[in-house]
Write the structure tokens for this entry.
Amino acid sequence: MRRGWPGRPRRTPLCAAALAVSGIGVAELASQQRYEDPRVVVSGDVTFASEYNWRGLTRVNNWVLQPDAYVAADLGALSSGATETIRFSLSAGIWADVEIRDPGPGEHSDRGGPGFGELNPWLQLGAGMGDVDLALGVTPYFYFGDALDFPSARTSASNTTELYLDARTRGRTVDARATWWLDIDEIGGSYFETAATLHIPFVPSFFAPDPVLADLELDAI
């Protein structure tokens, strides 16, 4: 998500690297914004992946679509004179995993056929200071599998709810993140994850003040 808005921990397909391209000066300008006046951001994206991996487990090993949409409102900042101390945001959204085809023999599937396998609405309160962002949120998990047609499908009996606490640092070269999820419903367990992203500039820009036009992002989870 954009600089200055703590991002919800997201499920991502298994991958080694991602390409991120930004306009000249966008990252630099965004990092200088103060967000003292309330504003609202509406955004979304769609991932097309060859399989769906979640917390080290293969959930679906065929093609999936994963749409994600959110709205975030800046709640203003606590400031001391000209120095911003803590800024706050409130965001809500929805994430889904859509299976594209019927699973073959021995394949993994949440639904057991084409359609929505999982749906996760979420609500999050964020706080940021400098290059450090914190977020506290809640996300329910809804499943739509049919165990009659596919015995290992996840049905509504697996529905549950998690609280999560996310902390991350934002740097020009390295971003770091740590997230803790606590199940408060069906499962009752917890999960902790750390991650880091290394930004490697590879297309130089000759326009000041930002010397980077595009970079390669390497993720370690």
Remarks:
- Confidence is low (pLDDT under 50) at residues 1-6, 12-36.
